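Following up on my earlier thread - several people asked me to post the actual chain instead of describing it. Fair enough. Here it is, all 220 residues.
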Amino acid sequence: MANNSFPQGGYKPGGYKPGGSGSNPRFQKGRSFGPRRNERIRAPKIRVIGPNGTQIGVMTPYEALGIARKLGLDLLEVSPTAEPPVCRILDYGKYMYEESKKQKSHKSSAPKLKEIKMRPTTENHDFMTKLRNAEKFLFAGNKLKVTLTMRGREMEYKDQAFENVKRCIEELSHVGTKDSEPRLAGRNITVTISPLPQSQRKLKYSNSADEMPEDDSGEE
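Reply from S.P.:
Thanks for posting it. Predicted structure:
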């Protein structure tokens, strides 16, 4: 008489199942694999959005996946916390490419801290060049750090150096506003300027078509 292959005590519901989540560490709790798609969508019912953005209706994931497969597309869970969860039928490869482009665009457009450096002896022509660069940085939505460095006997003329920095702040008031008063730290007088709201920024010394210059942050 052949022996049963079940362990002593018989088969118990919820016990070991070949291929079940208990046998594969990839399905352990706490592991995240991004948005669920296709066969990984486990909700009993889902709300389905078609590839053109219109609602198809509420159905089982199996039914929705069948529709997606007929169109040569994927089923992606886009709102897992909704009741029922919302899934879209789409081209997953194209979707990920567009998401990657959005992230890169967001990073490239994020505000940065730009810097211009001056000396007490900066001539008016050079001062205006620095001013135009500063204007472009602020107009583009970047914060600006203005640094005036004094050397040797120039420290005796701190008042004049402060006036130069204040002049810079005043000349840029149409695109930015100072975060605080200029301050002296060692041989440097510094101030940071934040851009005005976009609707209030204006160009006075440069043109919107001009190339964005390099800032002075790498200079000694």
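The chain has two domains: 34-104, 111-200. That should answer part of your original question.
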